[in-house]
Fold ArsR family transcriptional regulator.
Amino acid sequence: MTDHEITPEPDAAPAAESSPAAGSSPGGGLSPVPGHEGFSGAEAAFISEMGSLMERWGLPQATGRLFGYLLLRNRPVDLDTMTRELGQAKSGLSVAARQLESWTLVRRSTRPGSRRIDYEAVGDLQHLLLVNNAHMRKFTETLSSGVPVARGEARDRLASLAELFSGFVEQTEALVAAWEARRAAS
């Protein structure tokens, strides 16, 4: 990529050359990233794969591609730059950025003396896990509230689901706490 401030890891293998088919696989699994001319093949493939992944989560592919693009950035970027580098409409990227912001996957900022809004991928995704956990906790409480009113197999099913999701919440909280402790120790 040209002006993306993306630097490879010291031990990383060199990225593939950019080509018109950058991001496509021999089996046709990945499609090229719109406006991919400044991306290496590996970068374009990553951006496309993130688009496909997030599409499976119910978000537009453009939103996932924007997230992949922002994950590869070393500093915040404005909509004009995104439009130029991704080759997508500014309005669509604005919607995608707001969707990512609502999921707490990106944050917005402004530069002193400028009205332009910059976006960057957040590095503290443990926050997203904890926000998701709050929703899961409420889901678990709702399941548990149905146990006393249900009968027979339905009661057993609700109790089992409530127990499963309660364990999920506990394990996620433990995972985040352990991860934060490892990061603090390093």
Remarks:
- The mean pLDDT is 81.
